[in-house]
Amino acid sequence: MQNFRQTCTSGQAVIGTFVAIPHPVAVEVAAASGLDFLCIDWEHAQIGRERIEDLIRASAVHQVPAMVRVPGHAPEAIAAVLDAGAAGVLVPRVSTAAQAISAVQATRYPPAGARGVGPGRAAAYGYRIPDYLSRANDSLLLAIQVETAEGLANIEAIAAVEGVDLIFIGPGDLSVSIDAMGPANAGKLNAAIETIASAARKAGKRVGIFRPSADDIGRWMRSGISFYILASDTMFLGASLAAGVAAARENAKGWS
Q1: Cβ distance 68 to 38 under 8 Å?
Q2: Which residue from 39, 58, 86, 164 lies 20 to 30 Å from 142 (Cα-Cα)?
Q3: How is residue 160 annotated by DSSP?
Q4: What does the alpha-carbon distance between residue 179 and residue 188 come to, in Å, rounded to a whole number?
Q5: Rounded to whole angstroms, how far apart are CA atoms 80 and 118?
Q6: Could you say which DSSP state residue 212 is in?
């Protein structure tokens, strides 16, 4: 697989989706669809730590990088998914520069960080530790998720943290945190997104965002956002089934 960090920081559009279904079959189906990457959602989905490694393996079958959204800032969680072979990590609810620095320390090996060396799957269970150590810092993507009013207020300091590759915007939580929910407040939310994206770009960071559909990706590309997590496997499954059922009922009219 290509260097995932280089791919995601190239400035070209990179499209992935969240994995919420805890089964390798769902991962293989998603990986075969043409996506650039998958993001296993350990934060919100019902996926256990042991299962994450199996899902990463399933993605690797199709040579599609799998990153993991961890359920918080704990260095142990970040180390666990990277040792399992994740191509990167998405750390949620980063609201201060100190939290961003902590994420860097947990993701990078010394001297860039403080990640511990372990004989996990990423290092061929201990047989290729030197090889993995030689490339991990340059190939693993560290994305931090800014999605709070505090994070918005501290965005310049957060974006300036060395070792962070990508600032990922979570519009859902951000809209709640800044009291900008609903269509009537779209302007306020969009302004906050633009503020985060602008600060990240000025600091030399790439910018990502969650979108529930592909309808407005062109609009956000014009704002310098190039990394997209598009809906999730469960969202796509539900929408596709609903559309299929609606089409079947429409075509069945007049024949019963």
Answers
A1: no
A2: 58
A3: T
A4: 9
A5: 9
A6: S
